[in-house]
Amino acid sequence: MPRVIKHPEIRREELLDHAQALFLTLGYEKASLNEVITAAGASKGAFYHYFPSKEALLEALAERFARQALAGVQDVLDDPGLDPLGRLNGLLAQSRRAKIDTAPEAWALFETLFRPDNLVLFYRINLAASASFSPLLVKIIRQGVEDGTFRTFDPEGVADIVMQFGMATQGVIAKAIAGGSDADMDVAIEALENRVRLYEIALDRILGLPDGSICIGEPGYVRAAMTARRRTNSGKAQ
Amino acid sequence: MPRVIKHPEIRREELLDHAQALFLTLGYEKASLNEVITAAGASKGAFYHYFPSKEALLEALAERFARQALAGVQDVLDDPGLDPLGRLNGLLAQSRRAKIDTAPEAWALFETLFRPDNLVLFYRINLAASASFSPLLVKIIRQGVEDGTFRTFDPEGVADIVMQFGMATQGVIAKAIAGGSDADMDVAIEALENRVRLYEIALDRILGLPDGSICIGEPGYVRAAMTARRRTNSGKAQ
Fold first, then answer.
1. Would you call A211 an interface residue with chain B, using a CB distance cutoff of 8 Å?
2. Disulfide-capable partner of A26 in A30, A121, A176, B190 (CB 3.0 to 4.6 Å)?
3. Which residues form a coiled coil (chains A, B) (predicted)?
């Protein structure tokens, strides 16, 4: 039988599919790289060629999640009826919708990142995930500066601040997860909702917009994203 | 000879003095905990009682540096002639002056924090250093909200954002250090100065102030702080 030569990109995607399936079944912490390699029917050499470590695998999964989440956003970017603020809010809404839709899987794969001792991995994987998000953000902010909607001298810098705001929630989310009780979770969700409000107003003002212009999270968004984890963990996924 | 019983706080300060002296001579990386213990003439048991690890020692040194840096700030806080913006700028100016004054020692002790793989340690030590800075910041912001100078619903949250801005410079500083040439350093210093400008305007706006109200770094501040390291490293300290 002739050996089937697959395109490297297809092979890589297949390996990611197998890894994701195994991480969803066993959990990222418990699944070993050897189990992933066996499940994928790959040679060790081929596997390590694509993913030199388990963390590199998680990084690639995060990058793929983020890319898929933004697949539908091109409509928003191309819509001639939207001004830059509409585009920015559309981009944030799309990213939010994708997060809610994939929340149970995302928690199962990435919960490990919210352990305090995984801060470096959290940053690395956040950077990988932002690789597709950040350039869109810069582009929209730059458009807004050009047409006078936004008022800043540094669109790249403002995009970095948006990313920082996202990364800074790690501590709050870590606390929400560490607390075991429903009351702990409620306190943490309220803290996170409050922080989202602050970041919205901060971004409004950094861009020279009236308070209430930018929507990072609708009411209920934080709770929906956080409780998706609890449903998964207790095995009562809807 | 009767054994001299020292107050635990005095003993702790002495151990920190010895550690600081040794780190300044040998460098933090090269000095071992055993050398610090020998230099301090302490028993291992006593030493580990105060500092369970070398990182805990660095954390305590950072906390002490920050506390000393703010020793002169009480005048600013008590000055009845200053409004909240004057107090905030006074606090930032004091912290800046202290950083410049202690820059050669601070670089020798803390340069290790700007290695990419020391991100967790950087965060931990930044938190320790901010323990004395952050409450002052919250207090001043709250005063400003009460008298109508500042406009925000979340003084603690804004103080957190100030801290985040500080932490986010780690990457830029790491890059400046990694680049070997003077040209690399110039590019990095310019990037950092630009980022300071952005953070100043961002804070102005987050607090509802006109652009140009808050001064995080005077012109030349970044260069002065960064080049203090080069002088030290090349042995040409002034």
1. no
2. A30
3. none
Structural domain contains residue A238: no
Q: DSSP string of A157-187?
A: HHHHHHHHHHHHHHHHHHHHHH--SHHHHHH
- DSSP letters along A181-234, please? SHHHHHHHHHHHHHHHHHHHHHHHHHTTPPTT---SS-TTHHHHHHHHHHHHHT
Name chain A contacts of B157, Cβ cutoff 8 Å. 194-195, 198
Say how far apart CA B231 and CA A44 lie, in whole Å: 49
Contacts (Cβ under 8 Å, ≥6 apart) of A74? none
CATH of the domain at B185: 1.10.357
Q: How many domains does chain A have?
A: 2
CATH of the domain at A33: 1.10.10.60
**What percent of chain B is helix, strand and coil (3-state, nearest 5)?**
75, 0, 25
Question: How far apart are alpha carbons B49 and B57 in whole angstroms?
Answer: 11
Selected residue with higher pLDDT from A207 and A182: A207
Supply the pLDDT for residue A99.
85
Query: In terms of pLDDT, which residue wins out, B208 or A108?
Result: B208
A196-201 mean pLDDT: 96
Q: Which of A201, A214, A216 would best serve as a mutation to test chain B binding (most B beta carbons within 10 A)? A: A201
* A186 and A112 within one domain: yes
Q: Which two tokens stand for residue B23?
A: 């780190």
Residue type, A7: H
Q: How far apart are the C-alpha atoms of B73 and A70, rounded to whole Å?
A: 48
Buried b / exposed e along A113-146 (16+ C-beta atoms within 10 A) = bbeeebbebbbbbbbbbbebbbebbbbbbbbbbe
Report the pLDDT value the prediction gives residue A230, as an integer from 0 to 100.
Answer: 58
Percent of chain A's residues with pLDDT above 90: 48
Output the six-digit token pair for B2: 């009767």
Residue ranges of chain B with per-residue pLDDT less than 50: 234-238
Q: What value does the CA radius of gyration of chain A take, rounded to a whole number of Å?
A: 20
Identity (one letter) of the amino acid at A101? Answer: D
**Neighbouring C-alpha atoms within 13 Å toward the C-beta of B232:** 20
* Per-residue model confidence (pLDDT) at position A229: 75
pLDDT score for B238: 34
